[in-house]
Amino acid sequence: MGGAAVTRPDRRITLIDVARAAGVSRQTVSNAINAPDLLRPDTLTHVRAVISRLGYQPDRGARSLRTRQSRLIGYCVPPPDPDRLGWVLDEFLHSVADAARGADYHLVVFTPESASGELDTYATMLQTGCADGFLLTDIARHDRRPGWLQRRGVPFVSYGRLSPRVGKAWVDVDGASGVAKAVDHLTGLGHRRIAFLGWPEGHRLGDDRAGGWRSAMAAHGLDAGDREYTEDTISAAARAADRLLDLPDRPTAVIAASDSMAVGTYHAARNRGLAPGRDLSVVGFDDTPSAALVTPALTTVSQPLRDAARLLVEMLVARLAGEPLKRRAVLLDPVLVVRDSTVSPPG
Predict the structure, then answer these.
(1) Which tens digits make up the pLDDT trace of 273-286?
(2) Is this prediction's pTM over 0.90?
(3) Helix (H) or strand (E) holding 285
């Protein structure tokens, strides 16, 4: 295969330019981009090398007109809360964007004008061709989004477990397993009074993590009576942790359902002259970017975000292409990242 490039540096490289330079047909170049499995390996390698050398970029707008696809994935992000640590959102967004780009899709991040108008935002994005499918997060009990999308035949995947009646394409992290690992770690250090600071009962993620604490405490023959439930903010967590530390036989360790709540526990301990990581061991959940930066550095449960992002994008791309899913309903196991906030109990 041969040929010479006949392009000028002052204009956009076209598919025809690539075909001429590679000495192949336009359809072969198109297949190299959109259906590489149709080409022989040597042909595919050659065409891709020419594409790279010429710096050819496919015309996304033209492709959208032909396929009626925008090649865009919609992702709704929650509004920021100054009383919470930055969630794992930053790393997760980067991981999803990287995985989407590898599949020749792009991520469109949006926020609804209000919680009540969120479904209207999804409808507008579909009507205006701003997204082919959606990635859902922060799945709550009785969440309306999965059923709404399913009834309209819109492809979607969820970072969070779904009811089988509304969807089977989801990836989640086993929060119960993560908290159980925290209990195992603390009991290994010698702790016997291990409290739990969680979200109000009925919260899907909160109940999962609280269940892991109760089961692990029972497995170690320990009482699971020291617990408080409150909102996922630093200030609310500080007040709830204060109640735990007011107990006559106060806990020597606290496992929090989030890193924000762990930092609230730090505040409550310091307000009464206790030093986290010395007088009180604290474990968080999420391994937010701030977890390694607070003092003492926070022991926390880390979610496998890159694996989750890769699997979610693979699932969604398969659904958009009408292909059967290779994997569905995937539950990933988190890891405990041990830092300076957990030590043997004092005395």
Answers:
(1) 999 999 999 999 99
(2) no
(3) strand 281-286
